[in-house]
Specification:
Shape: elongated
Strand content: under 5%
Radius of gyration: 28 Å
Length: 209
């Protein structure tokens, strides 16, 4: 039986048409693999280009920059745009106590002062940006791009206790705010990229799965 099989293989290999069929099959498979690799590479570059444009547009938002400054620095000077009639910008010092009061006031649904309103609006813009990033990741539009240093830094400012830039009271109140207004995408990003032992406790919730 083995001898008959060996003879059959030899006869098959001696047939030029069989060799041509085999080479055609191998060539087609190779072309497919190369094409698939090029397609994936092209798609990755398209994703990177889109993500870069998205990140650039978000970073260009004055409110996002203000929110990041509030979390990075002690009492940063924040300037809100003037009125529609071209009035001068309204500037104030965003102290930790002001940020905490603004977030707490929003959760309690009390009337906010103009400065508090600007604090909440700026932070909302930052959280909305993270929500968009998490949605794109969940839908498969971005993957490793989420580990971009800028995004990672924003996540750590909110939910990583190892980050020394944001004061612990501000971070705790901010995480309460994130939970209260159900920024679930932000919680999922924190759960995904911050080790559980290092997460801000208020950001460690069931919704972050």
């Amino acid at each position: 039986c083995f001898l008959e099989m060996s003879n059959g293989v030899r006869n098959w290999l001696r047939n030029p048409e069989r060799w041509l069929q085999l080479l055609t099959l191998v060539g087609g498979l190779t072309a497919f693999v190369i094409g698939l690799r090029e397609y994936r590479s092209e798609q990755r570059w398209k994703r990177l280009e889109y993500f870069t444009q998205l990140l650039s547009s978000v970073e260009a938002e004055p409110e996002v920059r203000s929110a990041v400054s509030m979390l990075e620095y002690n009492q940063p000077r924040i300037c809100a745009a003037g009125e529609a009639d071209g009035g001068a910008p309204r500037c104030f010092a965003a102290t930790d106590s002001l940020v905490i009061a603004a977030l707490d006031g929003a959760m309690r649904n009390r009337v906010l002062s103009p400065e508090e309103h600007q604090v909440v609006y700026s932070i909302d813009r930052l959280l909305t940006a993270l929500e968009r990033v998490e949605y794109l990741q969940k839908e498969g539009f971005v993957a490793e791009e989420v580990r971009h240093p800028t995004i990672a830094w924003w996540i750590s400012l909110i939910g990583d206790r190892r980050n020394r830039e944001t004061s612990p009271p501000v971070r705790a109140k901010l995480c309460e705010y994130v939970r209260s207004f159900e920024y679930a995408g932000t919680l999922r990003l924190i759960a995904r990229y911050v080790p559980s032992r290092d997460r801000t406790p208020q950001c460690t919730v069931t919704a972050a799965r």
